[in-house]
Amino acid sequence: MMAGPEALSTAVNAESYPVIDVTDWAVVRRGQLGTKPKRWILDPDGNRWLMKQTTENRRRDGTRYRKGDDWSERVANGVAGRLGVPAARTELALDRAAEVQGYGIISKSVLAPPSGDEAQSPEELVHGNQLVDVELVGPERVGHTVEAVRQALDGVAAPSGIDDLTAWDVFVGYLLLDAVVGNTDRHEENWAVVDRAGERSLAATFDHASCLGFQFDDERRRRHLHTRDRNDTPEAWADRAKSKFEGRPHPVVAAMRALDLTDRAVRQRWVDRCEDADRLVEPIWMIPEDRMSPWARQFAERVIRRNCHRLLDEFR
Predict the structure, then answer these.
(1) Sheet holding 103-108, edge to edge
(2) Engineering a disulfide at 295: which of 50, 78, 151, 218 sits with its beta carbon 3.0 to 4.6 angstroms away?
């Protein structure tokens, strides 16, 4: 795999993530997810996946370029796995019938598939906006605080298969993931619990595309990578990130608030997993060449390394 002219990582020859051809998968439902077109599709085994095609931005001269909201989601998912954070399975996708390139990302439903003659899953997804009172005041989400989420998860079980942590302990891991990749979109509808006949458990984390400079074109990335202005480097850009919690704290600050609300053993458990930044940047180098440029890889790696360094400094 081409590493780029100034590669930072030694994981250049890592195996690439697969790209799933979904051209012939059955469409269950179409709609919008924020500003993105989406559709629920069924794989050959009957599992439901959410397909989101990559979006475009317009340059000042009127030309358009493809954003990286496919690779950013896949990289974040790979980082989640290395942190031990339960996340919805996510894969790079290709739709050969799409009008524009057909690049996208698919995310497997966190709900159990229907069984027998049931038309719907026996489980229901309850989003955070149904659990926390949030008022939108301009860009502010008043009421969406780390403390409010902790309170909302009181009595909720951890995701299936996790027996030694509470739902809140696991959610702290979600915020740690946000901090590492610089995810700025953890609003009240981007986390949820699963309800099964009144029994509730925290849903696996999902929707992490808003990270790692996915929205930039390579010209801007090169500018950040080569600048002599310390206020314009990838690290400086990473330091300016703002979360969707009340007051718009940096994702690292939000994660530290959450860590402060857990016991010492849980705090240490999560932070220890940020020590090996070399391992956390591996997913960047597993994205196929036609999806992610060398400049995007360098930029994303420097962001992750900066965020890990900042987390560890804050914790110490």
Answers:
(1) 19-21, 90-94, 103-108, 48-53, 36-42, 26-33
(2) 218
Per-residue pLDDT of 177-217, as tens digits, reads: 999 999 999 999 999 999 999 999 999 999 999 999 999 99
Asked whether the predicted pLDDT for residue 10 surpasses 50, the reply is no
pTM (two decimals): 0.92
Longest dimension (CA), the chain: 63
Handedness of CA 42, 43, 47, 52 (dihedral sign): negative
Which residues share a beta bridge with 90? 107
From the number of C-beta atoms within 10 Å of its C-beta (0-12, 13-18, 19+), residue 115 rates as: exposed
Give the tens place of pLDDT for each residue, 260-292: 999 999 999 999 999 999 999 999 999 999 999
Contact between 188 and 126 under an 8 Å Cβ cutoff? The reply is: no
How far are the Cα atoms of 79, 171, 190, 284, 293 from residue 87, in angstroms, in the given order?
10, 11, 12, 17, 25
